[in-house]
Amino acid sequence: MGRALLAIIFAFASSSFVAAQDHCFDPLSGAKAKPSTNPSDNDPKDWNQLVQWTHPHADQEGVLRVQAIEDGMGPINLDFYSITFKKHSTKSLSDMFLDLRKHFDLFAHRAAGPYEGEAPTYFLPYRGDGTVTDPLGARNKSLWESAQPTGAVMSFVLDNHTPALAFAATLKGMKIVLEQGDVVVTCAAPMQFIFSTVYTRADGFHPVNGNRGFGIRDNNDGSWTFYTMGADRETKVATAELENGHRVDQGYFGNLALELGFPDRGIPAGADAVFVAGDKFWREFFDNLEAYLDQQGMRVNPASFVRNTNRYHYPLQ
């Protein structure tokens, strides 16, 4: 009886903590709010919360491990993107944030590349068996679309990484498929959340190790700002090769292909290629977001778009 009572108390306390949480990280807020956190500033300390973020809710089905920043390789990428638009006439700020979250599949959409046909979506719930009726996918979809998405495991289809041949029984042969980068929601509040990259049973490695926060804020002048802020490093993969008796670690093969200039998607070859690919993705994401907001009558100020992305030595000094 005592243990059962403690379990109930713990469960209640945990649910109360989740419900009461109203903040995940401090974003770059703009000159009017805090000059030291202007969106164009390049002080790495402003990203410390995302760099140091731990993952108390990452133990989800299909997730083999969180890809922590310290386990990555090379420099750390710190970025911030935001856009400002006219506030909705009737929706609250939190309702608007939930609406935008439910439309991530629209914002992540892009034109089909030369290696594949048009896909129905480039952002979807993580599924265990790849079918639309998979119960794990249904669970993640329901969680993602809820007011409290902590623990939702989601997949980004990555057009900027190596396509692979896969056997498709339904097509009676081989087809080109694009890899997916999986993430889990490790923090959620009414107007913020954090994605952490994960290594999963179905999709393997995400190309980067790190955390990315999203949020919305009221500027108190009739406008709102949607933003994302990320901290990540290139994924490192342990190999079976030995050099002087020690295991050799190398970059993830998809990132290596980018660094060598394959496939050619307008991304310069080189050590920065994976981050250039990520920047390309988020610029397209915000273009689609702007179109959606304009269609909904929430006029976007095009001059308000902020793009701030830089690389730094790791660990940060």
- Give a count of the beta strands, DSSP E runs of length 2 or more: 13
Sheet bearing the most strands, described?
9 strands, antiparallel
CATH class: Alpha Beta
How much of the sequence lies in strands comes to 25-35%
Helix share bin: 10-25%
Helix/strand-derived class? alpha+beta
CATH fold node name:
Alpha-D-Glucose-1,6-Bisphosphate, Chain A, domain 4
Question: Please, could you describe this protein's structure?
Answer:
This protein is of the alpha+beta class and 317 residues long. The chain has a single domain, classed as START domain (Alpha-D-Glucose-1,6-Bisphosphate, Chain A, domain 4), CATH 3.30.530. Helix content is 24%, strand content 31%. The protein contains 7 helices and 13 strands. It has helices at residues 2-20, 48-51, 93-102, 104-107, 135-144, 253-259, 273-295; strands at 63-66, 73-86, 123-125, 153-157, 164-168, 173-177, 180-189, 192-200, 208-218, 223-234, 236-243, 246-251, 306-312. Strands 1, 2, 3, 4, 7, 8, 9, 10 and 13 form a 9-stranded antiparallel β-sheet that branches. Strands 5-6 form a two-stranded antiparallel ribbon. Strands 11-12 form a two-stranded antiparallel sheet. Strand 9 and strand 10 form a beta hairpin. The radius of gyration is 20 Å and the shape is globular. The chain starts with a helix and ends in a 5-residue tail after the last strand. Residues 1-20, 31-36 and 165-171 have low confidence and may be disordered.
What order do the helices and strands come in, and which of them pair?
Elements: H1 2-20, H2 48-51, E1 63-66, E2 73-86, H3 93-102, H4 104-107, E3 123-125, H5 135-144, E4 153-157, E5 164-168, E6 173-177, E7 180-189, E8 192-200, E9 208-218, E10 223-234, E11 236-243, E12 246-251, H6 253-259, H7 273-295, E13 306-312
Antiparallel strand pairs: 1-8, 2-10, 2-13, 3-4, 4-7, 5-6, 7-8, 8-9, 9-10, 11-12
